[in-house]
Description:
The chain is an alpha/beta fold.
Amino acid sequence: METNPTAQILVVDDEASVREALCAILEPEYRVSTAATGPDALAALERHPVDLATIDLNLPGMRGDVLLERVRREHPATEVVVITGEGTLESATHGIRHGIRDYLVKPFDVAAVRESVARALSTHTRQRLRIRLWQVLEDVVDRERDLPALMKSLDAELFANGLAPQSANSDTHDPSDPVAAVLRSLAELIEREDPYMAGHARRVAHYAKLLGERLDLDAETVERLRTAAFIHDIGKIGISPALLSRPGALDPAERARVERHPELGARLARELGLDDEIVTSIRDHHEWWHGGGYPSGARGEKIHRFARIIHLADAYDAITRNASRPYRTMPAPQAVAAELTRLAGVQFDPALVKAFLPLVSTPAKSRREGRKTTTPPRQRGPRKTYGGARP
Ligand SMILES: [Fe+2]
């Protein structure tokens, strides 16, 4: 894993020998300072913010778990790796609840320390970059700055941080187009925050393309559809990764923030000069066929066809992707088909579901499922839906 020689690390441990050992491991690659107590560590952070702190849980005076909480609260930009002599399930759980990046038990392994710190700093760099990218993009939107110059600087920044697009095997239509390249990088950046999301944009683009071809759209239109599908969640760049990947229900304010992403994305796409069809489809990709989606609650054919296709492709990926998580089993193709059929005419355009099912089902199954969609079922009660739309 690559390291960042400008990263600053604070080692907090009451034992001089441990501080010395950690300095010996980390100093060749980072700038390292030390503190022996909690109050000393907090004072040092006030004077010089750092990128990462290693914290011993068993400190005299202010306990390590209290220090950990204060560092996360008062210096949220500082990553924390806990290195402790007394590893317990309770202390690990406490640390995870307070957002630590890793938890190592003494006696520590040199390679494990190096790897853990490098991994935590890599996440840190991506999150900082993500915030900075959004600030730059907002700046451009608000002040009409020079777009080509901005794209060049974003590209350089993405490349410098190992996030440049892989143009050699690009899946978007024009690798030489700097706007498309940057947007593709942003889409991939969003995915990197959640390992289960890896490849989501690419898969949604692929399903949308299959469906576009099935509907006999011309090649140029299919390419525009594929681009729109690839970047449909681009507005999530403005939303905290912690919020996006949080399991369980969101409170109303959090939900409102997440539901802004189609409009944020559309605004970005418009300012970046993408055509109206792409802009509209990004804005509408959470609208529902029967209304009740967001942001506007548009219904039926008032929703752009690209957006209806992307919504279906996105939901299909959500169903199959969620099912592939380690603690669940992959649903049978007929169960996936039944789920999409259940929501045809409610969440999805029924004609699109009918066209899509044969593409993702076994031939024998698809013929049977295809006939089922001729009479779209009505939704009964608050059953599960996909894509975060309002029930
Ligand atoms: Fe979305």
